[in-house]
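Protein 1 of 2
SEQ + STRUCT:
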Amino acid sequence: MDELFEKIIAGTIPSEKVHEDEHTYAFLDINPTAPGHTLVVPKQKSTNIFDIPESDWLAVMKTVRMLAPYIKEAMRADGLNIVMNNEPAGHQVVMHAHVHIIPRFEGDGLKPWRGRPYEEGEAQRVAEKIRSLL
């Protein structure tokens, strides 16, 4: 056991635990985007969305859904972001599947990512690439 979140779950690295059940562990992020920024992790190690067992993913989502309104209320937040970063290009830093619950406040200065409209016919081509792999 040499991975950060495994050590946090085991209690060998301290954390500010918010919730724990049989399948998940939730704790405050040590570098929060906002106060109350919470991470929800499966206790069974998986790297990210690409290898997490369905049962663990469902357990994480159940915990996220349960905690979200309590975090919003406790922090008096105006809203929340629920985010999962996957692989280095997706800004995943710790290679243990985890979901962020991030309280958001009007005027907090955090910017959403920029989108761009599809060019003519591009959406259809992209959708077909995805559908062809299903």
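Protein 2 of 2
SEQ + STRUCT:
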Amino acid sequence: MKTWIFILMGCLALGCNNSASKKVIKENVAQAEAKQAAQTDLPVMTFEKSEHDFGSINEGDVVETAFAFTNTGNTDLTILDARGSCGCTVPEYPKNTPIAPGETGEIKVIFDSANKPGNQLKTVTLTTNTARGRDILRIKTMVTPDPVKAQQRQNMQNRTNN
């Protein structure tokens, strides 16, 4: 008799655990489906390119490029902020302007090479209402030093070292 009681209690315990497990699994599946549905309702920012190489430029040149994009998502895209990695890299963008699904726009990036000799790699970080929330655009260039400014920098360095 005692054996049957233990067997019956064991079956009840397993039965309760099994239905509790099924409930947790169903809740997890429902949460995953809700998350996926929410993400399909978000805008998607798709760029033609996310990097631009200006090649070789002369120190003091101000150059610019545009990064074209399309909202390939299902709701309006909004660019909340765009910041250059330094003051020499300035983005121009449609701030807080809704961009409908299928519509295009552009981010213009201006780079001022004054006092920036050598290899340069700069970024622009975009803050958006997409699932990722951030996108990064990159520009690069080789800045040929201005001979007069190069001599001035050398003279300053020599004074500092003496």
